[in-house]
Amino acid sequence: MADALDTEWAVRWMRETARVVAENRVLLINLDRVIGDADHGENLDRGFTAVVAKLDSSEAPETPAAVLKLVAMTLMSTVGGAAGPLYGTAFLRAATSLGDAAEIDPNAAAAMIRAARDGIVARGKAEIGDKTMVDAWTPATESAETAAQAGATAPEVLTAAANAAHAGAGATEPLIARKGRASYLGERSAGHQDPGAVSTAFILQAAAETARELFA
């Protein structure tokens, strides 16, 4: 299928995510320092570095879902704090949604993002407006589904998701946190973007950029 995403794309997505997270590690640390434990950037950098090492040392996964399952297991075992379980659950649910398919069409891409988002909500019990990564994942999900229904290609679906995630992350700045460690700060949590929402935007940005590059 033209413009369908495959295992090569999934591997490229993870390698690009590791690069983007490493590049923005200090930014994520600083965002987390003011409203959290200051470990979000360090934890994610360690996790995705481990993902790349696992991809380099293992037999190549045969399906996109196999790549995402490897990511989930690696993040759960290497990332501390809330990010490990949340992102691990997200990638595991995303993998489950894809099943054994060799290719990801636009509708499957949108469903993958929704599955990841629903996994995060189920694990963290957060809602839109709580100033968490859900504030990036929810608009990303809605935009991906709208794009798919409008006949967008899979790369276009991911681009819509990434753009919405960045907007969602920006929109967390004035919010007062109602979940996680940031909620302890009350009104002092306002004025800062949520680090999990920002890292979500980076991860989905990497998905979109690698998809576009494959079909450039």
TrEMBL record:
Keyword list (alphabetical) reads: Kinase, Transferase
Cellular component aspect of the GO annotation = cytosol
Which regions span the lipid bilayer?
Answer: none
**This protein's superkingdom?**
Bacteria
| Entry's Gene Ontology BP terms | glycerol catabolic process
Q: Please name the InterPro entries in this protein's record.
A: DhaK_L_YcgS (IPR012737), DhaL_dom (IPR004007), DhaL_dom_sf (IPR036117), Dihydroxyacetone_Kinase (IPR050861)
Question: The DhaL domain covers which part of the protein?
Answer: 8-209
Q: Which PANTHER family match?
A: TRIOKINASE/FMN CYCLASE, TRIOKINASE_FMN CYCLASE
Q: What is the protein name for this chain?
A: Dihydroxyacetone kinase subunit L
